[in-house]
Amino acid sequence: MKKPFITRSSVQLLIIFITFFSFTSQSQTEPQKQKSEFWQQVQFGGSFGLSFGSNFFSGSISPSAIYRFDEMFAVGTALNFSYGKEKYVFENIIVGASVLGLFNPIPQLQISAEFEQLSVNRSFDNPIYLDENYWYPGLYLGAGFSTGPVTMGVRFDVLYNEKRSIYANAYNPFVRVYF
Fold first, then answer.
1. Domain CATH code at residue 162
2. Residues of the chain above pLDDT 90, percent
3. Average pLDDT score, the chain
4. Quick one: average pLDDT of 94-118?
5. Could you write out the three-class secondary structure of the chain?
6. Does 1 have pLDDT greater than 50?
7. Which domain holds residue 55?
8. pTM for the whole thing?
9. Is residue 14 part of a domain?
10. Domain total for the chain?
11. Domain-embedded: residue 126
C-alpha cells in the first residue's frame, strides 16, 4: 500500500509555519508602539529560493527570528518549507525547523552553528522506486561575510549523509537577511 505523500507531522509543521509567517507579517504592519526591552533585541528575517529548469521546479521559504544579546552574539529559530518537482520523476515536500547561533567577532564576519530537522516526503512517478518519508537532521557550521542586514557565506553539514540528504553535498551556500 502506498504511503500518503503528506503525513500528519508535515501538516502540523506547515500549520506552525503559516502561523509564524502570519505573526511576523502582522507585527511589521502595525503602527510603531513602544517595544519591551526583549522585543527591541529581536530581529526577523529569513530566506527564500526558486529554481527552474527543463521539467524541474523547486521553491523554498524559511522565515526566522533571532534574539541579539549584543553586537557579537545572537540565537534564533527558523521554519523551513520546500517544494520540488521533476516532471515524470518525483515530487517532494520538505518541512522542518532549525535553531541557530550566530557569532560576529568583527562586524564583517559571521560564524554560525545551526541544527536543522527536516521531514522529507518524496513521491516517485515510476513504481519501481519506493516513495520515501523520513526525518533528516543536519548540523551546520558556517562562516559568512556581513554587510548591514545581509550575510552571505557557506555552511558545512557535519552529519551529511549522501543517500538521505536533500542537498547535493555537505557544503551549502547561504544568504541570511535580518531586520
1. 2.40.160.20
2. 62
3. 85
4. 96
5. CCCCCCCHHHHHHHHHHHHHHHHHHHHHHCCCCCCCHHHHCEEEEEEEEEEEECCEEEEEEEEEEEEECCCCEEEEEEEEEEEEEECCCEEEEEEEEEEEEEEEEECCEEEEEEEEEEEEEEEECCCCCCCEEEEEEEEEEEEEEEECCEEEEEEEECCCCCCCCCCCCCEEEEEEEEC
6. no
7. 8-27+38-178
8. 0.74
9. yes
10. 1
11. yes
